[in-house]
Design goal:
Chain lengths: 301, 246
Amino acid sequence: MGKDSRSTSVANLPWQETGSRVSFWASISSPFIDSFAQRSLIWLLIDKELRARYKGSALGILWSLAKPITQLLIYFVAIGEFLGASRSIPGFAIFVLIGLTAWSFFSDVASQSSQAIIGNAGIIKKIHVPRIIFPLSVVGSSFVYFVIQFLVLGIAILIVGSLPEFPQFWLIFPSTTILILFGTGTAYLISSINVFIRDLQHLVDVALSILFWLSPIVYSYKFVVQAIQSEFLLGLYLANPISVAILGFQRALWRDGTDDMANFPDHLIWRLGIMCLAGAVFVVLGQAVFKRFERNFAQEI
Amino acid sequence: MTNIVEIQNVSKRFVIHKEKSIKERLLNFQLSQTHKDDFYALRDVTFDIAVGESLGLIGHNGSGKSTLLKIIGGILYPTSGVVRHRGRIAALLELGTGFHPDLTGRQNIYLNGSLMGLSNSEIEFHLDSIIDFSGIEDFIDTPVKFYSSGMYVRLAFSVAVHSDPDLLIIDEVLAVGDQPFQEKCFAKMREFQRDGRTIVLVSHSSAQIVNFCDRVALLHHGELKFIGKTKQGVKKLDELYAAEAK
């Protein structure tokens, strides 16, 4: 390309501005546009993450199953057999596996996203890319592990032979949507705030272990109803989106438990729908916070 | 004249947090606002860069050159003012242009190229010439954490010039390369000049600036002191140095 032709071709390119204040609506819509425009980069980062994590190990990505399988065995033996939970929860192994699969997606996202910006400091300080791709790639790579674990869950269900019924089975879709939406919002919040307040990453670990026991993973919802008499506290328990998502998965896949409707709250479908909406609001909120903090990432890391 | 970058009234303020122990922080909790110091890295800088020109950016250490380049490259945001740019930018800012230490040189070419906006097929097309230009064929499959700083800059420069940029930003990094490589880089940059690409170069070598640039911008304590003819700018800088030495 010659001098003049380059000059005219540059003259026809749109200006990109840094520093000007953007309107409220633009600040809400631009993350969606950015992340769509950068989808190939997001894929590249997911691919990099998946390759880098188990690089050099013989079993590779199969290691991603090691943690959930150990957890499953521990809870199955300790809580199911020793504490006797398996007597009141039919199909306990499948029950725990369902909860763990959903849970490990969320906890994966939450614990990894604290490093999403800090860990990519080298790139962020040198190259201009929309920073939104970093938390999104954390959600993406965690979702890949989620899909793998979900396949294992499917195989386990086939082996046990308690096949899920239709149409409840379709509840896996709103439940997955809740996980993804709240996971994405959490990734935005944690990755951006942790740049400025490094204590957050330690707080996340603590909060996750509390949230784990606040979700119906190793005990069924029936136990919660029996233990909590107060209507208010029960409402609070169900305000946890992860609990609602897990209950949705259980309703869809836990064949042995669906005979007893005390295992599920009333109006589960409505609850799932409302949580999907709340999740969408949460994502927009997370994006707004991320956009607000993004300006100062390069100088703080 | 078509502009590729327009800088309008750009200021950049950094807040300096004084190192304090947790005890001090707790004791001075109410006072903590007064323990912050403001520092202006750039004050009200305004100028344009035209398509096809080679602009030298000069000034003493800490005069705000790197901050300005980072703002042009969209990495830092100005505290006030606006920067507009168009076209593809390739920026070599300090060392290490966004390499991932655990990935090999070859993998980093793909990562870096994609981050700069190249498609996979474009990278594959240029791969051989990127490796060839960098002159580090023997180490291309070694993780970059084992590279020397010279090897780093060779690979970074090679990727940057093959990314077909409209604007190439080079911040002092070439000083790390050896003489033959620096000559190779300047030959490449001459070729870029002939192609009508825009180059912004930071260097402390007056000879390099005078030889290469059409115009210079002189920054002094964050303020734009001079913009115009190269020789005049370099002379002004020497005067400033002389004044400070007294």
